[in-house]
Amino acid sequence: MHSSKPAMIQDAATAHVRPPVSMAQPARRITSEALLQQGREVEIEHSGKIYRLRVTQLNKLILTA
């Protein structure tokens, strides 16, 4: 008699497991100056929506949809 789980269930159970942090790719870093290119606001399109990244009067960044 075979007592292990069917392969389909084993695959589904492990499909969403994240790799250990040591194997993860580091996040890309870009300066706000490079992104804004001398401006104070930029529009970013993501999944069909437009987001606005802007610099506030206190020199902070705010992202709005």
Automatic annotation (TrEMBL):
Pfam family, any one: hemP
Positions of region (Disordered): 1-26
Domain of life: Bacteria
Protein's name according to its UniProt entry: Hemin uptake protein hemP
